[in-house]
From TrEMBL:
Protein name according to UniProt: Disintegrin and metalloproteinase domain-containing protein 10
Domain ADAM10 cysteine-rich per the UniProt entry, residue ranges: 21-73
Organism of origin: Stegodyphus mimosarum (African social velvet spider)
InterPro entries: ADAM10_Cys-rich, ADAM_Metalloproteinase
Entry superkingdom: Eukaryota
GO CC term, one of those recorded: plasma membrane
GO biological process, one term: integrin-mediated signaling pathway
Region (Disordered): 155-177
GO molecular function: metalloendopeptidase activity
Amino acid sequence: MAYGLESCQCVRGYHDPLVRSCELCCKIPGDELSCKSSFEWNLPPYDVPDLYAKPGAPCDNYNGYCDVHQSCREIDPSGPLATLRNLLMSPEGVAILKKWIAEKWWSMLLLFLGAAITVVLSVRLLTRRNAKSFLSTILPGQTDFRICNIRSSSRSHPSCLVTSPSGNSGHIPLSKNNRISRPRISAAPENGWV
């Protein structure tokens, strides 16, 4: 709606260049016969700059699209996407699919069962497990914790040791102020030799 004009699609004449269909075209609102290229709208009060349509814009009355070379490419009506759309979205295609599912219900059952098994196996095999660090983790507010030997001879009853962190305080001293002070080691020797 720039310059008070509406966009439209240019129709390429017999003697027009191939890029004519991909030129940016405008028309006076409500007037279908005034659709002209931006190359022709250079008189005041309009003075529209010479522009081409963006790649992917429709052209040739929605029967094609503009490519990066400003050439109108015709849409192939028998292409793979059109074939797939006609197969899945047409009433005949849906009827064929329903008939196949009704006749081969067992194959759909196997398909869903296989998908479920694949998901379960993926979760079981691809998740990271670190039982040793999990069993020795101290949770907030916990006053004692277990350290278990998960490699013990009896997997159903691992040997565990119950202990309490830092005496009776019930918390772990993780802050910088509670660390043990250690003597600093200076970089220069004490006798002054460098």
